[in-house]
């Protein structure tokens, strides 16, 4: 880790609808990678611990109202406030497993009707992930899993729209995993993609920026 000049940690993002299993998978991946001796951290967006994060959290709990563009920019600001720490961690050899990122930002906001290009604007220049693991699940199936916690976006009709908007963002860094499979099968596939990705970053794949 970190010995070779350009060696660095990998930026790995998990995306998917609410209840697609991202959070459980990211916990499992974290302990697997730790056991393998990698330097790794698990992050998530929104990061509700910052001032901006508190505003987002209150909006999601329906305790405050914000117009669609304002909340979009707050989600983005919440990533910007973490950008330099993110870069520092990666350069020092730590792999980051990030639960949601700019793709959630664009998919959820554009599902409300905002223009996709407008939504991408504030994300430009954030660090580009080396790998995006998309946990693909039919919205109906995710809803059946129960435990939609009652936050603002946790409604079937809206999740259907989000799923369509996610698909437009898919690029070469994406791996689409069938998240209706048993948890162990999903986990096995994720491990393989992640191990490959970490290896490429260790041999010095350059960091790049999103959507420029
Ligand atoms: P969470 O349940 O993963 O904490 O995410 C909270 C909600 O916020 C979830 O419904 C997805 C949504 N979201 C956005 O609308 N824009 C974003 O940029 C992010 C990170 C999440």
Automatic annotation (TrEMBL):
Keyword ATP-binding: yes
Residue ranges constituting the Thymidylate kinase-like domain according to the UniProt record: 14-189
Keywords: ATP-binding, Kinase, Nucleotide biosynthesis, Nucleotide-binding, Transferase
Pathway: Pyrimidine metabolism; dTTP biosynthesis
EC code: 2.7.4.9
One GO cellular component term noted in the UniProt record for this chain: nucleus
Listed GO biological process terms: dTDP biosynthetic process; dTTP biosynthetic process; dUDP biosynthetic process
GO molecular function: ATP binding; dTMP kinase activity; nucleoside diphosphate kinase activity
Membership in a protein family: Belongs to the thymidylate kinase family.
Protein name according to UniProt: Thymidylate kinase
Species the sequence originates in: Nelumbo nucifera
Taxonomic placement: Eukaryota, Viridiplantae, Streptophyta, Embryophyta, Tracheophyta
Name of the coding gene: LOC104592950
Residues of the full protein shown: 43 to 254 of 266
């Amino acid at each position: 880790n970190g010995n070779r000049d350009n060696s660095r940690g990998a930026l790995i993002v998990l995306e998917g609808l609410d209840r697609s299993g991202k959070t459980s998978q990211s916990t499992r991946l974290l302990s697997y990678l730790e056991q393998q001796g990698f330097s790794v951290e698990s992050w998530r967006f929104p990061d509700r611990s910052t001032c901006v994060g508190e505003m987002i959290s209150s909006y999601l709990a329906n305790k405050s109202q914000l117009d669609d563009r304002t909340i979009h920019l707050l989600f983005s600001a919440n990533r910007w406030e973490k950008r330099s720490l993110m870069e520092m961690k990666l350069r020092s050899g730590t792999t980051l497993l990030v639960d949601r990122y700019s793709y959630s930002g664009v998919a959820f906001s554009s599902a409300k009707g905002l223009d996709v290009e407008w939504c991408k604007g504030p994300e430009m220049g954030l660090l580009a992930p080396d790998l995006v693991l998309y946990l693909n699940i039919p919205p109906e199936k995710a809803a059946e899993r129960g435990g939609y916690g009652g936050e603002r976006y946790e409604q079937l009709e809206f999740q259907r729209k989000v799923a369509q908007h996610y698909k437009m963002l898919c690029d070469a860094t994406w791996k689409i995993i069938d998240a209706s499979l048993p948890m162990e099968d999903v986990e096995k596939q994720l491990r393989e993609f992640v191990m490959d990705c970490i290896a490429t970053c260790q041999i010095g794949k350059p960091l790049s920026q999103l959507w420029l």
